[in-house]
Amino acid sequence: MNVVMIGAGYVGLTTGACLAELGHRVVCIDTDAMKIARLKRAEVPIYEPGLSELIRRHMMAGRLAFSDDLASAAPQADAIFIAVGTPSDDDGDIDLSYVKGAAAELAPLVKSDAVIVIKSTVVAGTARMIANLVAEIRGDSDVHVASNPEFLREGSAIGDFLEADRIVIGADDARSADVLAELYAPLRKKGVPFVTTTTTNAELVKYAANAFLALKIGFINEVADLCEAADGDVAAVAEGIGLDRRIGRAFLNAGPGFGGSCFPKDTRAFAATGRRYRQPQTLVETLIQRNEARKAKLAAKIIAELGRKGGRVAVLGTAFKSNTDDVRDSAALTVIPALLDAGIAVVAHDPKARKATERLVPGAAWRDCPYEAARDADALVILTEWDDYARLDLRRISGLMAGRSIVDCRNLFAPHEVTRHGLKYVSIGRRPATPTTRQKAKRAGAGAGNWSDIAAAPA
Ligand code: UDX
Questions:
Q1: Does the beta carbon of 252 lie inside 6 Å of ligand 1?
Q2: 322 touches ligand 1 (CB under 6 Å)
Q3: Residue range 321-354, pLDDT digits in tens
Q4: For a pocket test of ligand 1, which of 86, 122, 153 has the largest count of ligand atoms closer than 8 A to its C-beta?
Q5: What does pTM read for this prediction?
Q6: CATH says 198-459 is which class?
Q7: Atom 25 (ligand 1): residue with closest C-alpha?
Q8: Which residue from 177, 199, 175 is spatially nearest to 188, judged by alpha carbons?
Q9: Protein residue with its CA nearest to atom 3 in ligand 1
Q10: Torsion angle in degrees (nearest 10) through CA of 146, 151, 157, 162
Q11: What pLDDT does 431 receive?
Q12: Is residue 299 classed exposed, middle or buried when 0-12, 13-18 and 19+ CB atoms within 10 A define those classes?
């Protein structure tokens, strides 16, 4: 099939490349001429594992092209995806002007029987509103509008597309359902289930799915706080409840609070929709507040860990999760400014997200390797679960640090792995662990360290 993808952002590029992988001919369109010029040279503007290779392969095979000329590409397309941005306003409601703008531009260009597919995450009723808009502009109802939400995680988007848990097809007419079924037919052959429903239901599925996943995270984070107080271990609790197939283990990793481009924005939009229909989504409203408060509380916990004013903290990881350079709503954006405000010097490291972080939160010093960031630090804080951090040589870290505390917000280590190097280990959902007298003596014998911090720090 001939596909046009409007919007060469994260979702548009990944979906476009993956539709080419399914055998379709895809043209990705963007109004940013510079971006298109770079993409034509196979320079991919975002970091997503495997995406550059996939794009290059399909460009060479002639299945994937980039253009800023919608008027030339649209008339040949059987399906035109709209994957443009939907920024939030202060209430959490999303701004649909780019979606409407793209649909209005498309309306006179596309052939009869073409299907406009809304890929952008939009609130219930949007596809129907767009269908009316397109019909009004064209003066006929020959063009169809469908909804096909994406469930791609940054960092594993290609796998999430090609081995999807399900494809949700929102179609209010038979032509839309047929075209979308044909587009995704190779996935159906691989056994991926299809949910074919109305456009409104498809739009609700997207928000309800993200809200539910975010609630799982918010729930386990509160359980983690209880575990810390009650001398439990949140990982054991998550395992114990996660093996119940009705619950499932996924998305039960306690951490610094969720971030990223989707959960914070989508939960706010879902809550705003609830308010608009006078059906408040109280659980989600509370979740949003608790998640924000968690990040602020974390900053306070780190400051308390220093046990005194000022000092120096190494922050490892500023991306909202590993394998991405995205820092939107990441814990680091709350924690770093709070530490700086408290007069603490911050020395940061992230394998991919330095530039994006520096743009949003200036004031931290940066190092190219985690060990350099740890040098002379009074405390070391891990905010992102990069594999490199899980493999840190803690003995070396211990030798480099001035203080003794590691605050690990991703539970990358077993407590004894940290304490045996004479370090205090503060993690999530477990009591802080301090080195035993023997471990302290061993380290003192090695001639390094300063135990005053441990003595001063709250247990
Ligand atoms: C999410 C959804 O997973 C995806 O389906 C949707 O299309 C877009 O939003 P993404 O934002 O890329 O994807 O990342 P995800 O892996 O879901 O993580 C979101 C946030 O939750 C991150 O901050 C992550 O660190 C946090 N998280 C996730 C946890 O704290 N614990 C978990 O168990 C899982």
A1: yes
A2: no
A3: 999 999 999 999 999 999 999 999 999 999 999 9
A4: 153
A5: 0.93
A6: alpha beta
A7: 321
A8: 177
A9: 153
A10: -70
A11: 96
A12: buried
Domain boundaries 2-197, CATH class: alpha beta
Q: Establish whether residue 258 lines the binding site of ligand 1, counting it when its CB lies within 6 angstroms of any ligand atom.
A: yes
Among 7, 5, 66, 77, residue whose Cα is nearest residue 37:
66
81 lines ligand 1 (CB under 6 A): no
Task: Quick: pLDDT tens for 31-88.
Answer: 999 999 999 999 999 889 999 999 999 999 999 999 999 999 999 999 999 999 999 9
CA nearest ligand 1 atom 21, residue: 258
Q: Do domains 2-197 and 198-459 have the same CATH topology?
A: yes
Residue with CA nearest ligand 1 atom 17: 153
Asked if ipTM goes beyond 0.95, one says: yes
- Where are any strands of DSSP class E within 35-150? 64-67, 79-82, 115-118, 144-147
Confirm if 2 and 25 have CB atoms less than 8 A apart: yes
Q: Is the CB of 274 under 6 A from ligand 1?
A: no
Q: What percent of the chain stands above pLDDT 70?
A: 96
Domain residue ranges in the chain:
2-197, 198-459
| Residue range 418-453, pLDDT digits in tens | 999 999 999 999 999 998 877 777 766 654 444 444
In short, whether 263's Cβ falls inside 6 Å of ligand 1 is yes
Residue 262 among the catalytic residues: yes
